[in-house]
Amino acid sequence: MTAATTSFRFIPRYRGLGLSAVGLGGALLVVGGIATAVAPILAGVVGIGMGAAYLLSPAWKLVVIVDDTGFEVRSPDKSRFRLAWGDVVKVVAAPNATCFVDGGAPERSLLVPGVGAVAPYDIRDKAKLYEAILAHVPASRIERVESLEAALAAAAPVVTPPGPGG
C-alpha cells in the first residue's frame, strides 16, 4: 500500500439495543434468582447472551483501508477483498453520505451507510470514507441519487401478479 492510507472501522449500529439486552437480561437473572423462578433466569441468560454476542461480534473488527490505489476490507487476520479504484464498476451516492460501491460482485462491493441509512452496521468516520471514495472514483462512474433506498426501489423489477384465470 502507499504511504497515504486511512482506515475506517466497522462499529455496531445498534449499540444501545445490545446494551439494553444485556441490562434487561441481567435484571431478569437477578429477579429470577431472588424468586427462584426458572423462566426469568433462562430469559436473563438468553438476553445477556444475545446482547453480548451482538456487541462482541467479529464484524466489529472489520476495517476498510483506503489508499491511492484502491480500498480493502479486512479482518485482523485476513483480507476479505481488495478493489482497485479502476475496478469499481459504479458508485451510487446519496447526499446523506450514503454510497454503494459496486465491485462487480456482492462479495466485492461495499455499502457505506450515511446518516439515517438502513444498515446493520455503521462505520467510524463514514463521511470521510464517503468523500475518499468519491475523490478516487472517476466522475463518469458515479451516479448521484436523492436517496439510495429510493434508487434501489426504482431499480427493482416490478412483478405483476397474474390476473384472474392466469
> What strand order characterises the main sheet?
4-3-2-1-8
Beta-strand fraction estimate:
15-25%
Secondary structure: helix percent: 25-40%
- The average pLDDT score comes to 85
Cα shape: elongated
The largest pleated sheet is described as: 5 strands, antiparallel
H-E string: EHHEEEEEEEHEH
Report low-confidence residues grouped into runs of 5 or more: none
Tally of contiguous helical segments: 4
Number of strands: 9
Distance between the termini: 59 Å
Report the structural category: alpha+beta
How big is the Rg? 21 Å
Short description:
By secondary structure, this protein is an alpha+beta fold. The chain has helices at residues 15-35, 38-55, 126-136, 148-155; strands at 6-12, 63-66, 70-74, 79-84, 90-94, 98-102, 110-112, 121-123, 142-144. It contains four helices and nine strands, in the order βααβββββββαβα.
Describe the structure.
The protein is of the alpha+beta class. It is built from 4 helices and 9 strands, in the order βααβββββββαβα. Strand 5 (90-94) and strand 6 (98-102) form a beta hairpin. Helix 1 (15-35) packs antiparallel against helix 2 (38-55). It is elongated and about 65 Å long. The mean pLDDT is 85.
